[in-house]
Amino acid sequence: MTDGISATPRLSLQAAAAATAPVATPIILVDLDFASGPFRAWTGLGQLHWAGMVFEGVGSLGAVGEIEETTEIRAVQLTLALSPVPQTVVDIALAERSFRLRTARLWGGLLDAEGAFVADPFPLWAGLMDTMEVVDGAEPRVSLTCESRLVDLERAEVRRYTDADQQAEYPGDRFFEFVPALQEAQISLPAS
Known about the structure:
With about 190 residues, the chain is an alpha+beta fold. The protein is built from five helices and nine strands, in the order H-E-E-E-E-E-E-H-E-E-E-H-H-H. It folds into two domains: about 140 residues, no CATH class; about 35 residues, no CATH class. It has a nine-stranded mixed beta sheet, covered by helices on one side.
């Protein structure tokens, strides 16, 4: 602890100290792993380079919903939005098909007066992309709802005691191979 400034599990001591500086600009970095290629954006303008990745600035067009933290073991949602967006972005969003259950990550960071990172960005949120809403019209917008990885706990795991299901999980295992034949089999037990 230095001069009443303390680090947190997410914020390093250097970043915590910089947060109290006269000029410290908080930013959010977003990395969405679409099948067509990654979409990386940040809350400022222009390009920002970090960890070998290039983030495109969305400025005031981008919005990040509330990042909820809970002590309960449950899935939480996060909504990311762009509005208004050019028609080309709407067309790309409409064409994107396989995004569900792909990775979405957010980091928080601080920039100094020159626009350089004060410390490495810290993880804010990580989860999976779920649904995308595209509104085309006078003010087109794209919003993406993401779920935390805990959503997997709420999904029912459907398993069957069949040879096909066993082969999908353990190829070559013959444990359930004769189950269908047993369903119609007549088994006679000796009389006691």
